[in-house]
Amino acid sequence: MPAPRIDGRPVGRVAQLVEQGTENPRVGGSTPSPATTLYVVALAFAGCTSDTCYQLCATTAQAIEPCLGEWGASWDDFDAASRVAWGDACRTDWDNERLHLELRQVSVANEACTAAAEDLGQMSCDELRALYFHP
Fold first, then answer.
1. CB-CB contact of 28 with 7 (8 Å)
2. Is 6 helix (H, G, I), strand (E, B) or coil?
3. Residue 133 binned pLDDT confidence (cut-offs 50, 70, 90)
4. Scanning 50, 52, 85, 100, which has its CA 20 to 30 A from the CA of 60?
5. Neighbour tally for 5: CB within 10 Å
6. CA dihedral (76, 81, 84, 87) positive or negative
7. How high is the pLDDT of residue 89?
8. pTM
9. What is the domain partition of the chain in residue ranges?
10. Which of 69, 94, 74 shows the shortest CA–CA distance to 12?
11. What is the DSSP string of 109-135?
């Protein structure tokens, strides 16, 4: 499966999560104005916890963890030391990607993360494996 892309740029874990649970998997983007960037950074430092993509990172890590034994895998196979480390890396990927989005695009991405979280709750280990485990 090719790496997820936004405006031709490869993106990380969050974009993959969002793509899997939405009908329209593309979130367009452009370089935000300095004011937009400052606003997004301010939200991040203010401890804004309503970011559903942050929450999706943790939810996905929790969904993957019980499947590891079935897959004969460990978090090392995901380039992470633990579930928490994978979630932290996912949130870091989202932080980096979010800085390149306009506020309206962040809102659309969060809506997509909400939808992806709902779909995630219905996925089997086999479906998760197809999406995330590529030894």
1. yes
2. strand
3. confident
4. 100
5. 12
6. negative
7. 94
8. 0.63
9. 50-135
10. 94
11. HHHHHHHHHHHHTT--HHHHHHHH---
